[in-house]
Amino acid sequence: LLKVLSHIDSILQSPRAPPSIFRPSKGPVQNYIKENGQGCGFEHLPLTIEMWADQLVALKDLHRSLRKLSLELLPWNTKDPQDNRESIRVEDLQLIVDAILEELEHKEKNSQTQSLQTLSAIVSHFQKLFDVNSVNGVYPRMNEVYTKLGEMTNAMRNLHELLELDSSAPPTVVVDTVGKLCDIINKNVTEQVQQLLGTQDIHSIINKLEEHECFFPPFQALIQDLLCLLEISNVDDILPAVQNLK
User: Which UniProt keywords apply (predicted)?
Assistant: First the structure.
């Protein structure tokens, strides 16, 4: 037993052991077991072995967590030769971590490539939509589109306010409202023309216009002759000038 303990103690003191594992005993316990005048410090072995046992259990828990993570990131990689093993080594965990890291790096490279392809497709689509012949013309056309969009937005906002529409009303509602307003205005104009001409039907309006075309040219010629004869330039001066001739 002493030989086994000495062997374990030498392992704990080896350069490969973590620095925090081997702690030489102090005080009276240091002389608890001595052989050939040399202290072995075996009293710390139970605590160290107990800690190792806890670490081995934690290693299995860590392996289980890494496997779950691996199945989430690498669902196609369901084979794990370590599933049925009693002991789990650090190398096993390192293999899982390396596989996950490799997959993440691969996805990152693919995402960067896909991003470049997506950006190129967006630029090409913009060129087709707005008739841009070269990539250099994309930025000026973007500025132009942005300016036009701002003008249209302001115009639509003003129309919403003038027509007393809700700000959330779509453009189709604005157009329909403007159309109805134009119909009302045109109807009122037609009624005013009918009242002015003293008629309510289109044929009477046509007759009135024909009469006006027949009457107005001779009347205009007569007025012009009177202006020349009386040597005046204003129509309002014709009547006073004729009265003075009496």
Answer: Coiled coil, Cytoplasm, Cytoskeleton, TPR repeat
**Domain extent for 219:** 200-245
In a domain, 20, yes or no: no
- DSSP secondary structure string for all residues of 151-190: HHHHHHHHHHHHTT--TT--HHHHHHHHHHHHHHHHHHHH
Report the C-alpha gap between 22 and 41 in whole angstroms. Answer: 10
- Could you tell me if residue 205 is inside a domain? yes
More confident residue, 73 or 59: 59
DSSP H or E segment with residue 121: helix 90-129
Dmax over CA atoms of the chain, in Å, equals 167
More confident residue, 154 or 38: 154
Encoding tokens for residue 115?
């991003």
Name the helix (H) or strand (E) containing 205.
Answer: helix 202-230
91 contacts 62 by C-beta, under 8 angstroms: no
- 131 contacts 144 by C-beta, under 8 angstroms: no
Does 96 fall in a domain?
A: yes
CB 23 within 8 A of CB 44: yes
In this predicted model, which residue has the larger pLDDT, 78 or 191?
Answer: 191
Contact 227, 235 (CB under 8 A): yes
Look at the chain and report how many structural domains it folds into.
2
